[in-house]
Specification:
mainly alpha; 5 helices; about 0% strand
Amino acid sequence: MSFPKKTEIDKMLKKLEKKKGTIALSPDASPLEKFRFGLCQKFLRYKLENNLSQKDLSKILEIDESKMSKILHHRIKEFSTDRLINLYVKIDPNVEINVA
């Protein structure tokens, strides 16, 4: 197996620049940002543990698939913390919210 040519790497990097992937948690994130990030991780964990597609989970939560995608990729600026909690309670009604 050989290493790809520089032109191939440059071409792939240009494609990746246009893609919107998962947002990482900033090292200097506030406690609220960490909490919201953790909620997104809970949705993702639930999806994986229950072998659900994004579409399946969006149906369970009664939201459109594009909004589900935003939650799963931590792109949640348009969601209030209350809304995220209320959505999560639909899949885990016994969840306990702790603030440390």
